[in-house]
Amino acid sequence: MHEADFWKEEGDKVRCGLCPHLCLIAKGKSGICGVRTNVAGKLMAMTYGKVSSLNIDPIEKKPLYHFKPGENVLSLGSVGCNLGCLHCQNFSISQAGPDSFFLRDVPPEGVPELVRSSGCKGISWTYNEPTMWTEFVIDSGRICKERGIFTTFVTNGYISEEPLRRMKGIVDAMNIDVKGFTEEFYKNVCKAKLAPVLDAVSVAKEIGVHVELTYLIIPGKNDPVGELERFSEWSAGIDVNMPVHFSRFHPDYKMKDVPPTPASTMERACKIAKEKGVRFAYVGNMTSDQESTYCPECGSLAIKRSGFSMRMVNVKDGRCGKCGASLALVL
Ligand code: SF4
Question: Which residues line ligand 1 (CB under 6 A)?
Fold first, then answer.
């Protein structure tokens, strides 16, 4: 058990400031996420260094397409989440508690050796919501950076400003989910709010993190053309070079009654994004030409992708090999 950061006393309770829920927690109780608990008047981060999942993944699986393309990353996950998405595809760990029998203790100083022995050059905090063990990310990430290991964070973006700013210089890249573009969707489907996620994207960019976005398109829930247009305009307004990944929905968890997203909807979303100024829009969870990177200037194929595999077809020093335009790659 590790004492949390980002909390204060309020009467005989504690207020957690890690995420926008700002839970007020009585003694012996936990916040909405289930992994931050008031123990005798102190807020404890119950999953600090408690690892549920450890795998080597291609970075394309996060998905991160413009940061260290083709690299493998050691992926670490724990348990718990601060959102309650009805369609969660990782519910077995996102909804599990800190007393789960399968958790393995890994101290922060043990993380670089795990990365080194995996043969990877980078790490990804992923699988469950990594905000839940922010203190562990910061402590282990700082050591990783000192040893020249790159760091990535796959998140729902539901994090308060202070802990996010604390990741400056520690987290190199983030994939942030924007799960829909209406407050109604976030309230009904995710049990959260949209606005703090959009703020988090801006702050992450401001502190120098490489950011890519994922938008999972769910038929009948967050797929109206107008919503996709507004999302794309907002994304391009922040940075036209910020990659956007439209991900295909598959029925899961408490949303098994909704069919998979039609391929035509996915392709249309990509087209809308590009029309609205997003220079790098992709589809994922399905086979498509739109998995690949095309030069936004001359249209030639630069990086060919299929699933999680990729091949640089025509890239020179991170730029289009044909016309020399920037592909906004971090190599
Ligand atoms: S991190 Fe957990 S305990 Fe803290 S405010 Fe968010 S949901 Fe509540």
Answer: 16, 18-19, 21-23, 31-33, 36, 82
And the tokens for 303? 């990086």
Question: Residue 252: its pLDDT value, please?
Answer: 87
Cα of 33 from ligand 1 centre, angstroms: 6
CA geometry: angle 4, 9, 11, nearest 5 deg:
150
How confident is the model over 243-286, as pLDDT tens digits? 999 999 999 899 999 999 999 999 999 999 999 999 999 999 99
- Coil, helix or strand for 120? coil
CATH of residue 213's domain is: 3.20.20.70
Residue 229's φ and ψ, nearest 5 degrees, are -65, -45
Alpha helices by DSSP H, the chain? 91-94, 111-118, 134-146, 161-165, 183-185, 195-206, 225-238, 263-275
Domain that residue 8 falls in: 2-45
Give the model confidence (pLDDT) of 27-49 as tens digits.
Answer: 999 999 999 999 999 999 999 99
Q: Is residue 100's pLDDT more than 90? A: no
